[in-house]
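Narrative progress, year one. The postdoctoral researcher (J.K.) led the effort to move from monomer predictions toward full complexes, under supervision of the PI. The following entry was the first complex the group processed end to end, covering 937 residues in total.
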Amino acid sequence: MNTTIVAAKSVIAVDIGSTITRSLFFDVVSGKYRFVAVGSAPTSAGAPHFDVTEGIWRSLEQLQYITGRVLLSEKDGIIIPGTPDNQGVDIMVATMSVGNPISVVTVGLLDTVSLQNARNLAHTTYANIIDEISLNDHRTSSDRINMLTRKRPDLIIITGGTNNGASHSLLSILESIGLSSYMLNESQRPHILFTGNEQLQDEVKSGLSKISKLRIAANIQPVLGKENIQPAQKEINEIYKEFRNKQSGGLREVLSWTEGTFTSTAAAFGRVIRFLSEKYEPEKGVLGVDIGSDSTILAAAFNGEETLRVFPGLGVGSGSAGVIEKNSLELIKRWMPIELSDQKIRDYIYNKSVYPCSLPLDVEQLEIELAVAKQAIRYAAEQTVPDLPKQLGAGGTLLPFMEPIIGSGRILTLAPKRYHPLSILLDGLQPTGVTTLALDQNGLLPGLGAVSEANPLLTVQVIESSTFLNLGTIIAPLGVARPGTIILRVRVNREDGRSFTRDIKYGSLSILPVELGEKVSLHLRPLNRFDVGMGGPGKSGKVNAVGGVLGIVIDARGRPLQFSLDPEKNRKRNEAWRKTFSKYE
Amino acid sequence: MISKVKHIHALTSIKRERVLPVAGHVLVRRMQKVSPSDVIVVAPLVSQFVLMDIAQGLNVNPARADELLQRQAGEDLVQGDVIAGPVGLFKRVVRAPQEGMVRIAGEGKVLYEISSPDFELQAGMEGTITNIIPERGAIIETKGALIQGVWGNGKTTYGVVQPTSNDLLKELVVEQLNIGFRGAIITAGFCRSPEVLEAAGIVPVKGLILGSMSANLIPLAKKMDYPIMIIDGFRETPMNKAAEKILIENKDKNIALNAQELDTFQGNFPEGIISQSSTSEPDLPSEVETLKAGKKVIIINGPQAPQIGEIEKIISGKQVLSNGVETQLAEVTLANEKSTIIPLTNLEIIND
């Protein structure tokens, strides 16, 4: 029976994460798609099973137990499509993030142009760049051949030359790549993705197709200054699938269950953020951040233009050591409201990286984990923001105006206090202007992204079913003043006609008491030429807002947040911010 | 709840794959007994190539250079052998830079592979070859003690195990590192001083097995020439009692120390193997088991780590810890008969 996803009623979206495999069940309830339940189990992609189906099967067993719906049959496995007596599921989609990152060599002509395109492309998936080749590196052809045969990358991304542009320089680099591939055993030859000057495609095909796993995508930079990353991104996702298929058993089975609707978690996450920006056409961009055990994903989209960055080895479990190694202990410590020795913090972080499933036992350990999460997101944001469109909002190293910002990841959803996820996202991302922080409390975003292309209706209806928890409306004025200077006057008009006014001082973090779900109208009057996104510095305006878990948060601490060289001062400031939040817990 | 099994066994069956990432020549046969230094497979692991521009060297165009080539792909040469030429008034030639082989020739260029000594992959442990993996390596099996760690500095060795004291509770200090430990794989409770790692390198010891270590020593430990394996984690606590007992009881016996870097996805853990002759045929250890009453467990996080105890009962439902985290707990009786409550996520099963 051939069932299309649009006609289908029930959908299971499986996400094979680095530690947990989750099966999300969606079905039609009262005429609309709704998220029904989730089952989870330890991921079995790696040792000792090396078969993803074990974890999927167990997560489905749990889902079956929770929902009471028969999904599995000893004889036939997963029951697809569903039967008239409500057994099984009509459609299954899958996403995956588990596995060691793909090792990539990027190739381009100029460091700041085509090589940057190649880097951006590599960072859309779970990849580590292990070397780069460009005209700026002065290695000989022999050196390049030796580098490639020694490092044996999984993937070589070749960019360079606008269409009808440079070709000779790129061809000389291609010679080294071809020779090195030829020298490797067939099983070790890298995937090659050519996304450069389209005039060279025939030459690339004739030179490389027989000695490598070659894929060709449209030029990533067809004309100077315009990046066209999506065609190459699709190819990267196909390569990711092939690569994972080789690493973990059971993926062929998953592909048969999903009829090929299988993608990387990051790609699906990026897709749903892009989908939101297309569907709702917000004036600002939409931002999503997913912080996992091993990796962090940041996805931003402006009217369908997506910027996706994946940071493998940067997370709150096995990736927590990466947070310290990519940053420093001091950058993590600056987020902590309690005093702990450097050794205690460092030891805890490295222990967490070798025992990623272990849980914090006391407040001290919890504070370390929250600080690691903040710094992981901060690092990801600092790396990503320069690549976002500059026309909206703050620009430079500050986050542009975004609406909404959605956070995902177990450190956010399982945090014990309601202010923890808001505090992590607020400090890590440091949004500007007026925005809403929301929490993907059931971890649906990758699943919704995987479904969205084939069944956008499901994605829309589930998103509109209050699946995201509104953490709070954030107002973050931009500007510089002396601490204590009044920089913003806010008038809050409630629906019942009551109103109140607050003067906001620079350096403060305040919460306006608005109930969860309460609709209010805000009149914002920035002073001292501060900018709250109402059309420029000093411009006033009205915005409608809805109270979140913590009401409405006014973050006048400045952008970017400034820290003292004195750790004790930072600790006290964190303590004060924490007190502000905990009052409304 | 399913838990990983931490492998600390006084006697178990051990099966390891020793393979190269490239094709090579396997030197062992099935059922052959091997010692750690026996070579399993050889291969030119790291080739060095030179791309020679023959046309430029002979000062002719590429087509003419191809006509002047005297060698074909696959030909072995010694240093000074003529690859192309002679040409011109001065009988210009291009010669082999070192002993090696022409790999590709054409379009005025030659890709020349310089001969390099083969990489020899050693068995790394005592045992019997039970299977050959064609061109890549072999499976080795043995019986003996197995101690799995959580961190290694990427090096391997084989030698005599020497505890630095009668128990492995204490910190390893410089004063303990005397000449008597030269060439030994020493074991101790924990280490927090960089001077100790440096002094151990001066003795020199052959390897170091610690219960725990301060994480700030990681960069230095990676630089040390000798293998270092951490069994329990990063802190300043004595070695867990199960591993301590095995290492003390096997004093002066040979241990194969593979302090490889942890890769949980591939299932690569640092480990020490002490092969033993035994008439019993223990099973291969299981990798995962269900946490339940009666199971022996090791605590992996918190002030009670790395103590070993037994699960008295799994407390039903989720409970709230002092920090607000909700999780499922187990009541665990420790070796001192005291009972403690630990999250299931902070336990690993141990079948010593």
